[in-house]
């Protein structure tokens, strides 16, 4: 007997398909999902310190250092002295990386239109509200679980 397909099953399938598409897109390049995430953050936030990147990406400073080192070696980012803090450096996109990321944004917009085209025009508004509501609920659940884990760790450390 086959179990019914749940909303979570479909969301996991979509997540897997996006990961496969991303892997295909960057096959043969030095970009990985983690490195692409750094570039995506920089295109939205602008030049940033590694500490700010680590905070926004919710990874360790050591992890960001490795990612930035690899991106710099591949010509995607550059490090420059911070104008207001001589101890810090700013990480910014190179012109070719900025061009790549703008092309990626265009590709995302086109793919979004193609995917939304699978939904009947009369259903699109409800679909978008539903996707937003599911994302909001999942974010709330994840944040609550993280807060509970942090509180439990704090209780153990006492």
UniProtKB/TrEMBL annotation:
<dbReference type="InterPro" id="IPR036388">
    <property type="entry name" value="WH-like_DNA-bd_sf"/>
</dbReference>
<protein>
    <submittedName>
        <fullName>MarR family transcriptional regulator</fullName>
    </submittedName>
</protein>
<dbReference type="Pfam" id="PF01047">
    <property type="entry name" value="MarR"/>
</dbReference>
<dbReference type="InterPro" id="IPR023187">
    <property type="entry name" value="Tscrpt_reg_MarR-type_CS"/>
</dbReference>
<dbReference type="GO" id="GO:0003677">
    <property type="term" value="F:DNA binding"/>
</dbReference>
<dbReference type="GO" id="GO:0003700">
    <property type="term" value="F:DNA-binding transcription factor activity"/>
</dbReference>
<dbReference type="InterPro" id="IPR000835">
    <property type="entry name" value="HTH_MarR-typ"/>
</dbReference>
<keyword id="KW-0805">Transcription regulation</keyword>
<keyword id="KW-0238">DNA-binding</keyword>
<feature type="domain" description="HTH marR-type">
    <location>
        <begin position="1"/>
        <end position="136"/>
    </location>
</feature>
<keyword id="KW-0804">Transcription</keyword>
<dbReference type="InterPro" id="IPR036390">
    <property type="entry name" value="WH_DNA-bd_sf"/>
</dbReference>
